[in-house]
Specification:
The protein has one domain. Helix 7 crosses helix 14. Helix content is about 80%, strand content about 0%. With about 375 residues, it is mainly α. The protein is globular. The termini are far apart. It has helices spanning about 10-45, 45-55, 60-75, 75-90, 95-110, 110-120, 125-155, 160-175, 185-200, 200-230, 235-240, 245-260, 260-275, 280-290, 295-300, 305-325, 330-350, 350-375. It contains 18 helices and no strands. The longest helix has about 35 residues, at about 10-45.
Length: about 375
């Protein structure tokens, strides 16, 4: 019986598999190095750069806007949160100023699924279902921020437990190789050497680090799709959306693997639009995807300071709290689904609403929040 050992295609597929695994390892190394390089290059720019960054984000609404807009532009919350972790780890960005940026990044990343929904605008019935699914992702993050942001301001609902968990992790990992222990690691040594070679051009190193973070995350996403997601695409509907618990679990797992909630939720939109997946099954998948996307920042924080790990924990806690608030079937969960369906019905009646919604929600609303924040003192956040 020939098991494929003599088939040239078998060897080609086997070689390609190991090549992709090797490239994945290189991509992960490049990601960790680029995070270290970003922090070191920001530090090398001196106190002037740090002061400008602190001043720009001292108002939390401005920080929220920066996180939202930057994520909407580059379509990667993983990149924005990893950069935020790096700045906090380098001491360039205060822990308190980083929290609104992370929350804004959560909102900005939902733009992708809404844009995918707009692609179904030529079919009214499909557009209704697609737009409801896309806005479900938006509303999960927007409503979650509207609830949790004031609680963070008054009670530290994110920062207090994050510091507690970060302290426990720090105690347990002080003697484990690979965690920050105060001495320069290999990534830092390489970052220092590269910065030294560039001399007075630290800005170029900073730009290089940002580009490398973005490219490495894109490479990781593409390679893991090749290794895992593509193989199971035929069973995607049945396996991923068999029931609500399964959809929630696969949302976490698949997004953790591909490092992109934008990708996994965008795959869900056309499935719901074409009637292959019910809207009610897509909601827990989207909620799970929001939790899964926090893995990138957690990985990025491993080689950083305790404050960097704490901001990564804030990212995780925010999405966990939102998942608890909007559990399908709960009062707020029903409100979340109701609003998303209503948005879909509005778009069904008047398709121009879809474009107006994107412009207002992702661009005009942040500017409005900044304007309204002018009369308040938020520097104590």
């Amino acid at each position: 019986m020939d098991l494929g050992g003599s088939n040239p295609l078998f060897f080609l597929m086997k070689d390609r598999l190991w090549t992709n695994i090797l490239l994945l390892g290189v991509s992960l190394w490049l990601f960790l190095f680029s995070v270290s390089l970003l922090g070191y290059s920001a530090k090398s720019l001196g106190s002037g750069f740090a002061q400008e960054l602190i001043n720009a984000t001292s108002n939390p609404f401005i920080g929220l806007f920066i996180g939202l807009l930057s994520t909407a532009l580059i379509q990667s919350s993983s990149t924005v949160t990893s950069m935020t972790v790096a700045f906090v780890g380098a001491g360039t960005l205060p822990f308190s100023s980083a929290i609104p940026i992370v929350l804004g990044a959560n909102i900005g990343t939902s733009l992708t699924s809404t844009l995918v929904a707009l692609a179904h605008i030529t079919s009214r019935s499909q557009f209704r279902r697609a737009f409801a699914t896309g806005t479900a992702h938006d509303l999960f993050n927007l409503l979650g921020t509207a609830i949790i942001f004031p609680l963070q301001y008054y009670f530290g609902i994110l920062s207090v437990p994050a510091k507690g968990i970060g302290g426990v992790i720090d105690l347990g990992t002080r003697n484990i190789p690979g965690f920050k222990d105060g001495s320069p690691g290999r990534f830092e040594q390489l970052s220092e050497f590269l910065t030294y070679l560039m001399g007075n051009y630290s800005w170029l190193v900073l730009i290089l680090a940002i580009v490398l973070i973005f490219l490495s995350i894109r490479m990781i996403t593409r390679l893991i799709r090749l290794l895992f997601v593509k193989e199971s695409q035929r069973q995607f509907e049945e396996s991923f959306f068999g029931n609500k618990k399964k959809a929630f679990g696969w949302g976490i797992l698949s997004t953790s693997l591909v490092q992109s909630s934008s990708l996994t939720t965008s795959l869900t939109v056309p499935l719901v639009a074409t009637g292959k997946v019910r809207f009610g099954r897509a909601i827990p998948f989207i909620i799970g995807a929001n939790i899964g996307t926090t893995l990138t920042a957690l990985i990025a924080s491993l080689q950083q300071s305790i404050e960097a790990r704490e901001i990564a924990i804030v990212h995780l806690l925010f999405n966990l709290f939102c998942a608890l608030i909007f559990v399908p079937g709960s009062p707020l969960g029903k409100l979340h689904s109701f609003l998303a369906i209503k948005f879909g019905e509005m778009a069904y009646r008047e398709r121009l609403i879809g474009f107006v919604y994107v412009l207002f929600f992702f661009f005009l609303l942040p500017f409005l929040l900044i304007f309204l924040s002018g009369g308040f003192d938020f520097n104590s956040l």
